[in-house]
Amino acid sequence: MSEHIVYPRVYVVIFLALLVGTGVTAWVAFYNFPGPLNAVVALTIAVIKATLVILYFMHVRYSPRLIALVIGAALFWMAILFALTISDYSTRAWLPVS
Amino acid sequence: MPEDLATTQEHAATHSALQHHFENMEQQREAGTLGMWVFLVTEIMFFGGMFLAYTLYRSKYPEAFAVASNHLDIKLGGINTAVLIVSSFTMAMAVFSTQVGKKRNSIIFLLMTMALGLTFLGIKAIEYHDKYRDSLIPGTLIPGRPFNPSPHELHLPPGMPIGNVELFYWIYFAMTGMHALHMIIGVGILSVITILAVRGRFSPEYHAPVEISGLYWHFVDIVWIFLFPLLYLLGRHLAGHLG
């Protein structure tokens, strides 16, 4: 078996990082950043936390590249879903409804 | 045919869990992992649709969403986030224990993961009950308890339509409800895995079911990692500036 075994040391570090990330996101939510920056900060922390879970808890860092490709395809497809729908909703007011 | 016989014996010698259509245990394990990820892709798209609905309506009614979100219990939401992260850690440890052949540890970690999952669901039930008490369950989902919160308790700014606040609660219950359903399914899957582990079905050579169930568990954790800031924290910085 050429399976890569991730040792508890790594899991503990990721686990602590995730707890810190949760604390930070709850803490900064009470500060009023200019413009849409609150949402940007919250989403950045969430994306970092999700990436840590995917790479280490879900072993993607040590898995075949094919797995990363499948995840990339999913995110790409979701980007299409968001891009097309938002471009519709955000431009509906450009033309008057007859 | 002697050649076929040799192949059969070789397979039998590898592991009793090896299915005939795979060359070896490693190929079988990798195929299973890939299959699980393809399933998780469909889950990403499923939750993605709800995140999209959230994005559209939040950008349309930002203030109503902030008012509605500020009424959620940030303490219970935060505790639940931590509970899920701990459960992901114990799940990862259950996979590790199985990989190195520590059966007792793996059963203990699986039981801990399930206990944490049930803790999450219990806290979620308390939150739902609070929303029921405050008549914040949208529409007429609960007979005799239509959506009818006190505008004063919500800190509803004058002139803000209550329907936009209700829209947030539709999305809140749809997303957290689907997430909770996934948690219930996850606990069910882990019960089966734990029983199989007790029966000694897993070993360093064969532990794909534990690993694949772990993938599902971690995925549900990731959904919550996004739900917590998006639902509970979105309007906290505006608490004193609305209305």
Question: Can you lay out the helices and strands and say which pair or pack?
Answer:
The complex is a heterodimer of chains A (98) and B (243).
Chain A: H1 8-28, H2 37-57, H3 65-89
Chain B: H1 2-14, H2 25-60, H3 62-70, H4 74-99, H5 103-133, H6 151-154, H7 162-198, H8 208-232
Helix pairs in contact in B: 2-3, 2-7, 2-8, 3-7, 4-5, 4-8, 5-7, 7-8
Report what the structure shows.
The complex is a heterodimer of chains A (98) and B (243). Chain A has 98 residues and is an all-alpha fold. Chain A contains 3 helices and no strands. By secondary structure, chain B is mostly helical. In chain B, α3 packs across α7, α4 packs antiparallel against α8 and α5 packs antiparallel against α7. Chain B is elongated. The chains are: A mainly alpha (98), B mainly alpha (243). Chains A and B meet through α1, α2 and α3 of A and α2, α4 and α8 of B.
Summarize the structure.
With 98 residues, chain A is an all-alpha fold. Chain A has three helices and no strands.
The structural domain count of chain B equals 1
* Distance between the amino and carboxyl termini of chain A: 68 Å
- Run of helices and strands of chain B: HHHHHHHH
Work out the number of β strands of chain A: 0
Our measurement of the CA-to-CA distance between the termini of chain B, rounded to an integer number of angstroms, reads 84 Å
Oligomer description? heterodimer
User: Which pair has the most extensive contact?
Assistant: A-B, 51 and 52 residues
Q: Give the number of domains of chain A.
A: 1
What's the shape of chain A? flat
